[in-house]
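Re: beginner question about structure tokens

> Can someone show what the tokenized structure looks like for a real chain? I only ever see the sequence side.

Sure, here's an example I had lying around. Input first:
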Amino acid sequence: MIVTIEKSKAEGKISAPPSKSLAHRVLIAGAFSEKSEVTNIEYSNDIEATLDCLEALGAKVERRENSVVLGGLDPFLAKDCVLDCRESGSTLRFMLPLCMLGGSKITLKGTKRLFSRNLEIYEEIAAKNGIAFIKGEDYVTVCGKLSAGEFKVAGNISSQFITGLLFVLPLLKGDSTLEITDNFESAPYVNLTLKALYDAGIKTSREGEKLFTVCGGQIYKGGKVTVEGDYSNAAFLDAFNLIDGNVEVLGLNPDSLQGDRVYLDMYKGLKTGQKEFDLTDCPDLAPVMFALASVFGGAHFTGTKRLKIKESDRAKVMALELEKFGIEVDVGDNEVTVKKGILTPPVEALCGHNDHRIVMALSLLCSITGGSITEAEAVAKSYPDFFEKIKTLGIVVKNEN
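And the corresponding structure tokens:
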């Protein structure tokens, strides 16, 4: 899909979409319960992937207009099956440990880009437990049973491995410890997981920042959970305020544990001339921060190495697209410098690189200069009605299928 955005200003009130990060977590916790209801759900591609996988494993799932009633999943009784993770890294890494509980042969499939992401932590755990782990270009097949014990996970690869294990360790026979080694990056996402577990009646104890003890044989409790607004995607809406817009974003919890709420401080920094930003714990904010830096005279970013393993190589592709606006970007191994320049209308179509956050970041700049974006359908991954929503704010958007 090609989207053309004309020069236009955003004004008005808009509700933040539901948090995708929280939705994944409460849906999995709810699936383990006898019966739970999760409200304020948006059926993005990633959330659909998680729901489809839970159903394939044996959960009962009832989709309603903006809520889901689900439960009854006993992963120890899962039969041989295939799970389609589509392009969702959260789905893949959260589901893999669940597939190592019942001893069945389970295949998780998805795009080649998804399976280019690191899975070595789970592969090592599988080997130690005698679990078969066969990985191809677009799938991984596991067969075997995970046992309670001592687990060590590097904290500088992805917090998703930690979350995946925290969901299954309470179900095992026997107690377990989970130790985080190396630097603990994206720690706020683990805090979201612990909150989802707590709300589902699961107890964990924590010694310091990096050591968790989890008792086995616990039972997930049902209930009703409402997914709060998403700071990650709200950042793209609130960004219009930095380019002469007047937008009020509603539905955000000021006491949220979401790590990406840090965008509020980063935006204040941009407006006051700050030029140094650390993205280690908030990589999903990188595309919008790069875009805004091009408007605010450039900036230097550290903690960018993990951008290579997202839906696209986000530092590299943002450099390619910002060049079309006349902005030069230097990309290093763990740093990015957006240089000072004059934003000019792109003379060729921009590319979304099949990455929802790249598309939304480019849309922001197109509202300043005008421009067209190919592969704009990528927004369906997390925010399916993004373009319809910004139209309500006065942004002129024309779709071409």
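Each token stands for a local structural state, so reading them left to right follows the chain. The chain is about 35% helix and 25% strand.
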